[in-house]
Design brief:
By secondary structure, this protein is an alpha+beta fold. Helices cover 51% and strands 19% of the residues. The strands form two sheets. A six-stranded antiparallel β-sheet has the order 3-8-4-5-6-7. The chain is elongated and about 80 Å long.
């Protein structure tokens, strides 16, 4: 998630608010008797806006609880998903905002100032919440390293950044969790596989998506694996696979460092999704 994506979504909301005001003026010309109570009966714009907002919220919830569906998203859509989701929500919300305020004042509604204050307060509140969840967290991260040199995550959202740094280390590139979080655009919502691909790509590392039968012996190391975490859900945690030691997988979990895991133990929380990484 980039700052440009966040501002683009908010700018879309403001633009649609202007569009909503224009829509209300047109509705008044077509239906001189229209007011806030009859607006839903006489016009389709508000219904369409509400439908788009509900669709955006529903899509976000489904993808959040179904990472297997999120894995199938095209690269660019996943990379800018928050921008798309934000625009799909803030656009219709902005339209309703502009439509309602314009119509309230045009019809001299007796509570027009209260309506305007409530809508402005709500819009500002949602905008502030949006700014918080899309704010990059790289400058808030620390630096923690195990005795054998592996990088640990210093926040609950930076597992992908720390794992990306460990993968870069395996490929002979020196970087830190903080630097990788800045490259990935990590926010309080974490990082997506597409952001990992782009972030490591800036270091000259090519990452290829793969979907296997959760068999680590078939994976080319180093690779990032997306595994389940009991606190955050399926495929919500990123670890670095750095090779095999006999019949055991060498996995660097940024929560505690390098561990050996049997394929059976790894399969209990890994469903086969990951990124194989190599120097270009």
């Amino acid at each position: 998630m980039t700052g440009a994506d966040a501002w683009l979504a908010l700018a879309g909301g403001v633009s649609c608010a202007i569009g909503g005001a224009v829509g209300a003026r047109r509705a008044r010309r077509r239906h001189p008797e229209i007011d806030l109570r009859s607006a839903l009966r006489l016009t389709r714009g508000p219904w369409i806006a509400v439908g788009c907002m509900l669709a955006a919220i529903g899509a976000g919830v489904i993808l959040d609880y179904s990472p297997f569906l999120a894995w199938e998203l095209p690269h660019l859509v996943e990379l800018h998903f928050l921008a798309f989701a934000g625009a799909t929500f803030f656009g219709p919300a902005g339209y309703l905002f502009g439509f309602t305020i314009q119509l309230a004042f045009a019809t001299s509604h007796r509570r027009r100032w209260r309506i305007a204050a409530a809508l402005i307060g709500t819009f500002l509140g949602v905008g502030i919440a949006w700014a918080v969840v899309t704010h990059p967290i790289w400058d808030e991260l620390g630096h923690a390293v195990t005795d054998d040199g592996y990088i640990l995550q210093t926040s609950s959202e930076s597992c992908a950044a720390a794992s990306a740094a460990n993968i870069a280390r395996e490929l002979g590139l020196e970087t830190t969790e903080r630097e990788m979080a800045e490259r990935l655009g990590t926010t309080v919502l974490g990082s997506s596989p597409a952001e990992v691909i782009e972030g490591l790509g800036e270091l000259g590392v090519e990452c290829r998506r793969f979907e296997r039968d959760a068999d680590p012996t078939a994976v080319a190391a180093p690779a990032m694996l997306f595994v389940d975490h009991p606190a955050t859900g399926p495929e919500s945690h990123a670890v670095a696979f750095v090779g095999m030691d006999g019949d055991q997988a060498l996995v660097v979990d940024p929560l505690y460092g390098l561990r050996k895991q049997t394929p059976e133990h790894l399969r209990a929380r890994w469903h086969g999704h990951g990124l194989e990484c190599s120097r270009r």
